[in-house]
Amino acid sequence: MHHPLRNKLSLLALLLALALTSLSISLMIGSVDIAPGELWPLLWQNDGGSHYRIIHELRLPRTVSAFAVGGVLALAGLLMQALLRNPLADPYILGVSGGAAVAVLGAMLMGLPFAWQAPMAFGGALASILLLFGLAHSGNWNTTRLLLTGVVLAAGWSALISFVLSLSPPVQLPGMLFWLMGDLSDALNPALPVAVLVLGLVLALWLAPALNLAQLGTARAASLGVRIRRLHMFVYLLASLLTAAAVSIAGAIGFVGLIAPHMLRLASGSDHRILIPGAVLLGGSLLVLADTAARTLIAPMQLPVGVLTALLGVPMFLYLLNRGIAGKTA
Fold first, then answer.
1. Which residues of 155-289 form beta strands (DSSP E)?
2. Of 101, 284, 269, 87, the residue nearest 182 (C-alpha)
3. CATH number listed for the domain at residues 19-88+168-321
4. Measuring CA to CA, how many Å separate 22 from each of 138, 187, 236, 247?
5. 95, 124 Cβ separation under 8 angstroms
6. Per-residue model confidence as pLDDT tens digits over 37-71
7. pLDDT tens-digit profile of 240-251?
8. Cβ 108 vs Cβ 161: under 8 Å
9. What is the CA radius of gyration of the chain?
10. Residue of 54, 79, 275, 277 with fewest CB within 10 Å of its CB?
């Protein structure tokens, strides 16, 4: 006899164990390795030594930021995929992060203070979403049209990014390029990403029943009391806020929002009450592990974490896609 709920709860417990393991690995590994037995006491007791300062001033803030950004990206990707009912939907493919990136690079070019980056990123993401819907809604609207419009829009933002980079003074260029490739080295204040993640998680879980009904199709969901248009607008706004926050904190980190929800759907089905917390745990764990590799592989130099997520993400997504297609045709 199968117990679907027990299986799903077991999956969440497994993902929680993965999250705790990835956080521990990130805190232990670096230019100075810290033994597993030392780690737990160092988290709570200040022994006045250098290991305590390394953990609390450098690794812990960066690790928590990486987990929160990974969770936010996975949640944004899951919301996009749920509403478009397409596993390829993702803030990066739909051009939302491209709009945010253009706005942030523009702010950098104009020499605006660092504090302007988050509001500029949100404004850019929101402008991209409004543009996307304005273009996709003219004529016969469907999810395929929306996805194709998003892909073309992403290409347009990419061209604008290249234009801004070509105008930038040589002194600013390395910082801009590193930021564009995804970088967590300056993410040493985890309060903002954690607050965004908690707010996004609470709102997404509140929407979970409506998202489950929306999978039945627009007409069926509407007959069951779901206000589809309002749900669409709310989810797109939430996804753009999550994407903007992630882009402003860590730059353009791709594939986390695409892979984490896709892997979970293959493992646990399509119940958003399980998918939402699961995606946050898996996305956070993936980005923490990628960031740990980014800062240790060629130490003392650091790689942009976005490069590693893409290098890992491309083959993994192709494998998942082929497995999904094979499963459907079998």
1. none
2. 101
3. 1.10.3470.10
4. 46, 18, 30, 22
5. no
6. 777 777 777 777 778 888 888 888 999 999 999 99
7. 788 888 887 887
8. no
9. 20
10. 54
